[in-house]
Amino acid sequence: MSSSCATVPHRVRTQWRSDNNFGPAIKVLPYRNRCGLSRRDFATRGIVAAGASVMSSTLVSQPAQVFGISIGLERLPYKKDGYKFWTWRGHKIHYVEEGEGFPIVLIHGFGASAFHWRYNIPELAKKYKVYAVDLLGFGWSEKALVDYDALVWRDQVADFLKEIVKEPTILVGNSLGGFTALVAAEAMPQQVVGIALLNSAGQFGSPDDTTTETEESGVQNFILKPLKEVFQRVVLGFLFWQAKQPARVESVLKSVYKDTTNVDDYLIQSITKPADDPNAGEVYYRLMSRFMSNQRKYTLDSILSKLSCPLLLVWGDLDPWVGPAKAIRIKEFYPNTSIINLQAGHCPHDEVPEAVNKALVDWLATLPSTYTASQTV
């Protein structure tokens, strides 16, 4: 792989299907469905948590190029020291900010960062004010040694909206970021006026998930639990070491991108470099052993039942982890939903950015408050 992706072709496919007449109908290929991301998916295939930097940088978008010739799709430049920083509860949080107009907040998936929206930020910023924030423990944000839970990221995003954005907002999230967008919207119903989910994480509840709490015995507390933790640390320590290797990151990305053209050195570096942070291994352990085991505490049906804003699902139908059946189930449960189906994998915003950008802009134009704001830019 070349040391620079500036001259690597960034081929973008624009064939897609919509139930809102956004584009021509195409045949949807057979897909493999999995509604939830399991702990094994994250641990053995997942992309590792990544590390903090300190310096702010001027944001200048760069055109994507093929053999040195611009193809019109701008790309966020990769800056190893990050872009902008905000202090939240004593922790350094990284984010990107570009454009003017009605605000849109982009939230990345597990192990990724704001840089994963590199093809979306410049385009969306032509009409809107775009923020892309790194969740605590990921990207350039601090590798804080806290007990990771969905509510930690919910509170982070909610405070980001209060302190940085300060006005009604659209949330857009991929994978884990999609689930975070949902729980943040539940917490901030007056400020979040719309949500777009791209192959979102999260599971629907099941009667089988209900459990009764029992008092643990002394043997469990003092013998079995410590042994279990030691075993987990050994296994997850090895998985962390394996997961942060560039070749492994590249392999994982290529397994969830149908078109792997955009799996380049910059994307890989944005994931592997932060993993060098001294706390990254411990963050990975806490994410795997604690957060993943608590996923069932927060179900999609319990969250969606409390929302009232419009919802857009932009779904890569060829995702080997989260198939389109989940999008269909979300719409059945939450009727105020539009679906855009794309021939892409788990990260359609980076794999087919032109199609995702169009889907977002067209949908945003149907929302009265954002449409008015976009016309003033």
From TrEMBL:
A Gene Ontology cellular-component term: chloroplast
Domain AB hydrolase-1 stretches: 104-358
InterPro entries in the record: AB_hydrolase_1, AB_hydrolase_fold
Gene Ontology MF terms in the entry: hydrolase activity
Pfam families according to UniProt: Abhydrolase_6
Superkingdom in the source lineage: Eukaryota
Gene3D superfamilies recorded: alpha/beta hydrolase (3.40.50.1820)
Name of the molecule in the record: AB hydrolase-1 domain-containing protein
Family matches, as SUPFAM superfamilies: alpha/beta-Hydrolases (SSF53474)
